[in-house]
Amino acid sequence: MAPPSTYESSWWGGSTEELGTPVVVKMDNPYSLVEIDGPGMAVAGHDKARGKNAKQLTWVLLLRAHRAVGCVAWLGAGFWSLMGAVNRRVRRSRDADAEPDAGRGRHMLRFLRAFLLLSLAMLAFETVAYLKGWHLPRLPDKYMHIDLPKHLQHLRHQLPENLRMPEKREIEGWLHAVYVAWLDFRIDYIAWAIQKLSGFCIVLFMVQSVDRIVLCLGCFWIKLRGIKPRLPQAKNADDDDIEDGDDLGAYFPMVLLQMPMCNEKEVYETSISHVCQIDWPRERMLVQVLDDSDDETCQMLIKAEVTKWSQRGVNIIYRHRLSRTGYKAGNLKSAMSCEYVKEYEFVAIFDADFQPNPDFLKLTVPHFKGNPELGLVQARWTFVNTDENLLTRLQNINLCFHFEVEQQVNSVYLNFFGFNGTAGVWRIKALEDSGGWMERTTVEDMDIAVRAHLDGWKFIYLNDVKVLCELPESYEAYRKQQHRWHSGPMQLFRLCLPAIFKSKIPLWKKANLVMLFFLLRKLILPFYSFTLFCVILPLTMFVPEAELPVWVICYVPMLMSLLNILPAPKSFPFVIPYLLFENTMSVTKFNAMVSGLFQLGSSYEWIVTKKAGRTSSESDIFALAEEADNSRGGPGIGGGNKLVRGVSEGGLEAWAKMHEHDPKDLQAAAPAETPKTPAKKSGKAKAPNRIFKKELALASLLLIAATRSLLSAQGLHFYFLLFQGVTFLVVGLDLIGEQVS
């Protein structure tokens, strides 16, 4: 034990023996060395170094070792889980060829495989050359200003600074000669071609960026000036349609509500419940449930739901086609051919997962009054599952920009935009004058909107009227949806181009339709995005004489991503994942664009987007329970403003627990359980996750290009390729959306 210090002895009068001083150890950073100092160490001796407590230092080191082992174990567990997920997805991918979309993008996959093999060979060749010192040697500064022969003058401009081609006497063996010949060919031909193509793509990129900035400025001006569609005001109190207490009078025209659906067992009940509770006179509206399901159990469930609401006094009918041709367009076309449709003036369309509020028609239909040129009123989509996973968050960014900026700006300044296919009200005369629903493309909504625009009809978008719906939660469902959304416009562009030139609309509207609506936003955007970031950028790593500027790779895309996120400010933390994910989706969009433009087979595929059957909140179940308890014998429709939400299969368990002793309520709320026909497995179980070969091929390509960039010491390019390659890997392994075991 150390003797007491002089200071301590004088303080205690020298009569107390010092038995040691307790030491408090504080570690702000557990990985830093800790010094343990006693109170008397500072005065113990000026010639001695500060001591350390060996015992406690040992404990600190053991703590470090424990944490290091825990970190390694955590990484090992994560790696093992990742390998397990990869193994499951590989097994799943063996059966992928039997699926309907197995042949989609086969040519694209072959191209990517060839590109990948070529990049591997080039990386191996360049690595050998680098290790042997065959890469372009440095030229001393004193020789940089010498005159070169005319046939070599181009080398001074194409070679990087202070680099020179090796002379013949410096060549070592046939492999070195091949490498030198490759350098010469690369500089003279390949670098030039890549530079020209990249310059063209950069021009397209800048044009699209300017378009995006103009749209944002237009939206800012709309917000600043408070520009939005206004309801028409009553001109005089003697109008026959005007009643006391209503500014617009008793304007209740005949409205048809159509609900097309196909094998959507998860969402039919919630959607029908919301549509049937729309606040509108019962005798002035009719609900058409247009069921194209080929699952007999699903048909019986939907029929039971329709019967339930019909018994409650709602004018609702169930239609099922025997000949299911034309997908959604054929379904709507068949419904519009009914004789009783002639009695109706407007038609509202809701897809199977949409949940309109009771005041939907009161907020949309009055805009048609006194405006005979108005053909469409479109409402905004909002989503019940925005925060479900990373995939839904990234989708929300895109769709918020689409509705808040694109649709609103085009509505205010052009009175034209693409119909979103649902949550909109059409004037039936506008549909009939434009030729009705056509089955020629997979984007029947955009088709009818373009034809109505060419006939002179005007559109209005209401950003304040919102309808709840559901985002795809799995990457597979989202990928198929995006393929349809990007192949259809190219089909439509080919078919509508002659009609656009022959139409009588002003020339500037024709230019907007061709140059902006179709070419720039539907064709050029996926083309340059895929070509620039997935083809040219990796190529420039293997051909360093042709390089992309840093501002093209990083700064401008980041600015565009920030502009996209402005309508969804809560998504700012996801700006980098959003940028990387959009580049990843460029593969699917480019493939879809090509298939639609050249009429490939996959452009005519229609696959219903899978739904999870989510409602707006868990309180919907309790709202339904309260309504059933207070309104036995059938609720009144349109009598109040309280929204009573139905539940799908996911909420029936909670409903059953609340009504264990009341089987009548359970039977009324869940008629879906009454049919005894066994359900098909395909409609019940979710397909497990699988791998996506094109995304994995591009992940390998970008990671190889990132490795090659290390040889050229291109720092920012390396990090971009690395993160983009990892993003492709995550998406290719289907780790971004819903995980199904």
From TrEMBL:
Stored SUPFAM superfamilies: Nucleotide-diphospho-sugar transferases
Xref: InterPro entries: Glyco_trans_2-like, Nucleotide-diphossugar_trans
Membrane topology value: Multi-pass membrane protein
Start and end residues of each stretch annotated as Disordered: 668-687
Biased composition (Low complexity): 668-677
TM region(s), chain numbering: 65-86, 111-131, 523-542, 717-736
Subcellular location: Golgi apparatus membrane
Keywords recorded for this protein, A-Z: Cell wall biogenesis/degradation, Glycosyltransferase, Golgi apparatus, Membrane, Transferase, Transmembrane, Transmembrane helix
Residue ranges annotated for the Glycosyltransferase 2-like domain, each copy included: 347-549
GO cellular component term of the entry, any: Golgi membrane
UniProt KW Transmembrane helix keyword: yes
Pfam family, any one: Glyco_trans_2_3
Major location category of this protein: Golgi
Family indicated by similarity: Belongs to the glycosyltransferase 2 family. Plant cellulose synthase-like C subfamily.
PANTHER family for this protein: GLUCOMANNAN 4-BETA-MANNOSYLTRANSFERASE 9, XYLOGLUCAN GLYCOSYLTRANSFERASE 3-RELATED
Protein name per its UniProtKB record: Glycosyltransferase 2-like domain-containing protein
Origin species: Brachypodium distachyon
Organismal lineage: Eukaryota, Viridiplantae, Streptophyta, Embryophyta, Tracheophyta
